[in-house]
Amino acid sequence: MTSDDTSTPASQDSPFRAEPTARDEAPQFVLPLVVRIERAAPPARTDALETAARAVLVMLSDERSLGDGEWARAMRDWQDARIRKVVRRARGAEWRRAEALDGITVTGASAEVRVFPPVPLDGWPKDLARLQVSGTELTDPEPPAAPDPQAPVLWFNPELDMTAGKSMAQAGHGAQLAWWELSDAERKDWREAGFPLSVRVAGRDRWEALTRSGLPVVRDAGFTEIAPGMTVVTEGGSRYCPLPR
Length: 245
What we know:
Strand content: 15-25%
Helix content: 25-40%
Radius of gyration: 17 Å
Order of helices and strands: EHHEHEEEHEHHEHEE
Number of strands: 9
């Protein structure tokens, strides 16, 4: 799959299925994301998830990821295999070293997430490889407000208990599936608006309905933290990221 494909991957060859597919035969890459977590001022959990999702969209839409751009080959190789994302945390000098590497920093209300071009599974840059995956147990100081109906919502499975880092990767998956569904014009509108979106945990009844709605569904392969299964459903907004029902 190329980075400008506008359709969701065929179900028999989805990058988010637990069963082996043709994608497993391709060289495997990972999209690294680093969230800044300072001891004195950690970000709110929901803001971190939303910022990570926007970071993935910013990377997908960046001119360096498209056509003959400097990141385009890595992006194509990554999307031709399993779509893997790994979130690590950094603070202080670690964050400053991460900022010095080729990538893009996306800022939310309280969160900062830096996304990097895909790298081979065993080819992480040294300054990223040394960062920890654990330690992303973030919380929300108060319940999130109702989501904006004009923008898409990434609905999380209410039955799952995932760390913030794992959840950030899942939010990125949900945003990426939505991106693949859109036309060039719809992508342009969403990008120019700054990729507005919300991340929320669905109620149990709503989750059941969402999984039967025909909307994009992330099916985690179960490599870490959770068993294989559905994690996120992406519902479109009335203005941005309109998705077919």
